[in-house]
Amino acid sequence: MSESRDALGAASTGGPAGGPEQAADRKAGAAARLGGEVENAIGRRLKAMYDDVLNEPVPDRFLDLLAKLDRKEPSGGAGGDKA
Amino acid sequence: MTGQQDALRDALVATIPNLRAFAVSLCGQPALADDLVQETLVKAWTNLDSFSVGTNLRAWLFTILRNVYFSELRKRRREVEDVDGVFASRLSVRGEQAGHMDFEDFRTALGELPADQREALILVGASGFSYEEAAAIAGCAVGTVKSRVNRGRRRLSEILGIEDETALSAMDEPHAAFDAAAAGVS
């Protein structure tokens, strides 16, 4: 039989043991895993809600703000070098 | 004013829709979200020299925004007892508007999640960041992001009453899932 590289092998590349959140997850185990359909349903709604705002035009408020900021040099060390 | 600066400003403008979508999803309130975006842009502009050109501007801006949001949240938590009450109060007003019900239910449910789970879900599930990028933005380990995403999904499915796949078809009928959820809590 060949050496089996199972899914757990991949999980161990994440570095040292992991925090309490991960430990709790492992304890919850596979039984608590959601079905793919449920994950998809949640993913679709999340994306729909997000894209709703993403597709709105940029409010003038922000263009005005950036125009105003533009007239000032960004502060910080790099800005003061030379004209 | 250099050409590079112009390019950065254009890149900032191009990222605003992303920032707004992230902010609204994160805080649940459009007006507050735009304040977050505004503060993010001002902070970004005044700290442009700390951004290294060639790295991911979007990730940098998202990091600034979530830091503003979480420090705001901590401040408000000190001032007001029940921050989540803002979201909870919507439960009582959502009433009978069918059609938008499903959408509103989802928003409300998302608002009921712990903020760190909500953040992880949005970054990975909607903003399109990898787990690694999301971890860098949230300032935590990759495994922590994965845990938060999983817990967030599980919690959402519980709130929405869709833990198992048979309940899903009911969710597509506007009232069924809501009625089932209402029956569950009463």
Describe the structure.
The complex is a heterodimer of chains A (83) and B (186). Chain A is mainly α and 83 residues long. Chain A contains four helices and no strands. Mean pLDDT of chain A is 67; it is low at 1-17 and 77-83. By secondary structure, chain B is mainly α. Chain B folds into two domains: 1-83, Rna Polymerase Sigma Factor, Chain: A, CATH 1.10.1740; 97-186, Orthogonal Bundle (Arc Repressor Mutant, subunit A), CATH 1.10.10.10. Chain B is built from ten helices and no strands. In chain B, helix 1 (3-27) crosses helix 3, helix 4 (85-93) runs antiparallel to helix 5 (101-112) and helix 6 packs across helix 8. Chain B is globular, with a radius of gyration of 18 Å. At the A-B interface, helix 2, helix 3 and helix 4 of A face helix 1, helix 2, helix 5, helix 6 and helix 8 of B.
The total strand number of chain B stands at 0
Largest sheet of chain B: none
Helix percent of chain A reads: 40-55%
Which structural class is indicated by helix and strand composition of chain A? mainly alpha
Give the class of chain B from helix and strand content and strand pairing.
Answer: mainly alpha
- Tally of helical segments of chain B: 10
Can you tell me the residue ranges of chain B where pLDDT is under 50 for at least 5 consecutive residues?
87-100, 173-180
Reading the helices and strands of chain B in chain order gives HHHHHHHHHH
CATH architecture of the largest domain in chain B: Orthogonal Bundle
Helix percent of chain B reads over 70%
Work out the strand percent of chain B: under 5%
Q: Work out the number of β strands of chain A.
A: 0
Helix tally of chain A equals: 4
Terminal Cα span of chain B: 63 Å
Number of domains of chain B: 2
Oligomerization state: heterodimer
Q: What is the CATH fold-level name of the largest domain in chain B?
A: Arc Repressor Mutant, subunit A
How far apart, in Å, are the first and last alpha carbons of chain A?
71 Å
CATH class of the largest domain in chain B: Mainly Alpha
- The poorly predicted ranges of chain A are 1-17, 77-83
Biggest beta-sheet profile of chain A: none
